[in-house]
């Protein structure tokens, strides 16, 4: 049955996907709006500059008139369907036709300032005029002001059409970005979903592994307390509780190691160490465990193999592989281990003649809490097999990967298992 906490995780991830999609689409929309405003501003400014130059050029041709009285009606001849020229005297009074009040004020200001003056005038909802006033002098020296008018409604309609087209394209682009953002968000959340699933499974497996020894401790303590017993009985119970507590301690230590590894909080000391020396130290410690099952640990290849790494973790790696071999090798079995230098790699090989691993379990043996019990022959020779929690090989793989190495396992049922660890050899130190 799905727990509320477990079902809440997919919903929270879906909410994250929606927020990411909205962020993608919203950010792109803001960029498009800013881009559109920038384009509109640039185009409008450029059009205004072109219009002023065009209207200014139209009025410049009037300076060739000999007298102001001769150009009273000249504006009518230089006017076109796109422009209309209205002439004013220096006080702003129209010379050629009746002009609106705002052009008179514009002409008077242009004469006072003696420079080109422009103005946009909105006469109504559908009439926008652009005016440019230019102070001029006839050949006789008398002054006048030419005001050129142009209708901007057509230009605004052109702008409006451009804005609508840009808006439609922007809306389509936002839709594409939203679809793409949803796809990207969905794909980007796949690792997070896997991490959540892995975390849920890890917690469930940890609780399952800890529940068994805790239940055993509670049960045996409860039975011992039901009635008064002899000192020998209490010693047996306490010994059993001590063994289960030791198992709990190992599981907790392994969980802490993996948790610190996942969080990147396990500091790794990197210095030059010799893998062959690390192997000898681990073999000395493991021989006591092997002696309990009358097993032998033989050293095969023994070559000098310097590597750069953490000596403590490398020792734990070798001990883990030896411990696995001891657990799953029958009584009176044989285990061999060796180190050799091959090219640019240091190679550690651990071989046992245990029950082997079946092909269906082999791809999963590095998964946390995975124990393919059917893969190792469960018999009277493997009484220690249940002591493991399925974390040793996961830790061994982490240690190997942290040292830029690789671990590989080959196994045949009823024939044994070969574990190979390959690490980069350390560079030769310069000779003093």
Assembly context of the chains = single chain
Total number of helices: 9
Summed over residues and divided by their number, the pLDDT gives a mean of 77
Structural class: alpha+beta
User: What spatial form do the alpha-carbon principal axes imply?
Assistant: rod-shaped
Strand order of the largest sheet: 6-8-9-11-10
Strands, total number: 11
Strand residue content: 15-25%
What would you report as the Rg, rounded to the nearest angstrom? 45 Å
Q: Span between N and C termini?
A: 68 Å
- Main sheet characteristics: 5 strands, mixed
Instruction: Summarize the amount of helix as a percent range.
Output: 40-55%
Quick summary of this structure?
By secondary structure, the protein is α+β, with helices and mostly antiparallel strands.
Can you describe what's shown?
By secondary structure, the chain is of the alpha+beta class. Helix content is 52%, strand content 19%. It has helices spanning 4-60, 74-78, 101-113, 153-188, 190-226, 231-263, 275-291, 311-327, 392-402, and strands at 83-88, 117-124, 127-137, 143-151, 271-274, 296-302, 306-309, 334-342, 345-352, 406-412, 416-424. Strands 6-8-9-11-10 form a five-stranded mixed β-sheet, with helices on one face. A four-stranded antiparallel β-sheet has the order 1-4-3-2, with helices on both faces. The chain has a two-stranded antiparallel ribbon with strand order 5-7. β3 (127-137) and β4 form a beta hairpin. The radius of gyration is 45 Å and the shape is rod-shaped.
């Amino acid at each position: 049955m799905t727990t509320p906490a477990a079902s809440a995780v997919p919903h929270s991830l879906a909410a994250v996907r929606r927020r990411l999609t909205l962020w993608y689409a919203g950010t792109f929309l803001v960029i498009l709006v800013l881009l559109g405003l920038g384009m509109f501003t640039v185009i409008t400014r450029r059009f205004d500059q072109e219009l002023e130059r065009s209207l200014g050029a139209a009025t410049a041709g009037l300076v060739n008139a000999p007298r102001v009285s001769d150009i009273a009606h000249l504006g009518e001849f230089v006017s076109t369907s796109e422009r209309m020229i209205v002439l004013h005297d220096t006080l702003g009074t129209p010379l050629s036709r009746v002009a609106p009040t705002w052009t008179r004020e514009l002409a008077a200001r242009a004469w006072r300032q003696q420079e080109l003056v422009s103005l946009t005038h909105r006469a109504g909802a559908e009439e926008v005029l652009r005016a440019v006033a230019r102070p001029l002098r006839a050949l006789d020296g008398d002054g006048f002001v030419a005001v050129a008018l142009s209708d901007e409604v057509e230009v605004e309609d052109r702008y409006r059409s451009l804005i609508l087209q840009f808006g439609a394209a922007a809306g389509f682009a936002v839709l594409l970005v939203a679809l793409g953002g949803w796809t990207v968000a969905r794909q980007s959340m796949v690792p997070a979903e896997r991490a959540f699933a892995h975390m849920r499974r890890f917690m469930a497996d940890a609780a399952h592994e800890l529940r068994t020894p805790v239940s055993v401790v509670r049960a045996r303590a409860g039975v011992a307390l039901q009635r008064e017993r002899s000192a020998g009985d209490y010693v047996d119970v306490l010994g059993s509780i001590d063994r289960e507590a030791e198992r709990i301690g190992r599981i907790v230590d392994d969980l802490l190691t993996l948790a610190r590894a996942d969080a990147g909080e396990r500091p790794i000391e990197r210095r030059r160490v010799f893998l062959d020396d690390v192997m000898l130290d681990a073999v000395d410690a493991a021989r006591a465990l092997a002696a309990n099952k009358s097993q032998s640990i033989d050293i095969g290849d023994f070559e000098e193999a310097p590597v750069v790494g953490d000596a403590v973790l490398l020792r734990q790696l070798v001990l883990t592989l030896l411990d696995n071999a001891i657990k799953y090798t029958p009584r009176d079995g044989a285990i061999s281990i060796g180190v050799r230098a091959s090219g640019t790699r240091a190679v550690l090989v651990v071989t046992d003649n245990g029950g082997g691993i079946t092909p269906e379990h082999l791809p999963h043996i590095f998964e946390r809490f995975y124990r393919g019990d059917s893969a190792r022959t469960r018999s009277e020779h493997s009484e220690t097999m249940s002591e493991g929690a399925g974390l040793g090989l996961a830790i061994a793989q982490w240690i190997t990967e942290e040292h830029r190495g690789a671990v590989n396992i080959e196994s045949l049922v009823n024939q044994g298992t070969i574990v190979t660890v390959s690490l980069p050899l350390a560079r030769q130190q310069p000779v003093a």
